[in-house]
Amino acid sequence: MQIIHLVANKTWGGGEQYVYDLIESLKNEQWCSTSVICKNYQAVTEKLASLDVPLCHLKLNGYMDIKSIIALSKILKKQNEDTVIHTHDFKRAFIAIATRKLSGKKNIRVIMTRHLVRKAKKSFFENIVYKNIDKIIFVSQIAKDTCLSSSPSIDQAKRCVIHNGIKDKICDTKYLRDRYQIPNETFVLMHHGRIAKEKGIEIIVDILAIIKDKLDWPPVSSATVKNSTTPYKSTCAAHAQSTATRNVASKKNISI
Description:
This protein has helices at residues 14-26, 42-49, 66-77, 90-103, 124-132, 141-148, 174-180, 201-214, 232-241, 246-252, and strands at 2-7, 33-38, 55-57, 83-87, 108-114, 135-138, 159-161, 187-192, 220-225, 253-255. The chain is an alpha/beta fold. The protein starts with a strand and ends with a strand.
């Protein structure tokens, strides 16, 4: 089986890391091979190229990108094995669906992972995607519920929730412990990413409260990593003050 990822972002983010982790996890599997088609942006291309899998560049500019549809169709016509095109937004899903139609290949499946927490649109192009896509994967229940709250025509059999996995690598916290003098016996819970509502950081605050009050665990420290000047930070800080974590948050909430 051939798995082809379509990646269109300019910068490296959670969706790109998701693709990276999937490819890395499957690299040594015998039952499939993986390749990437992406826009020619250095930040994304260099990182994906480090995986040493086939990679090529297309514009992937959206619903009306006929050139990319034709070019991808030519690639697929050379494939004799079953193929899954894994997309990560609706525009690229449309390109994949149009490509499958143009290629005339019957052994192509198109899936999409919905990484965002947003209501589904119901334009002409999105409705084509809903009708013709084989599966839509939501990374969380709230992502699924929010998307479906606008009542898009997505068959129930095409929807599923698969939570983002965590790679089985031990995170080395020595740097943080040394820099901020956090004792070895202190449990460290870290959020890596943007400080934004869709990341659910207030849920981490709630978890800290549960750990502190309900479980017999060591003291807790939290570290906020990257982009800590966004307005949502104030919301999280206020939430922390209103929970049982207020003492922990005020003493050990670290911005890097």
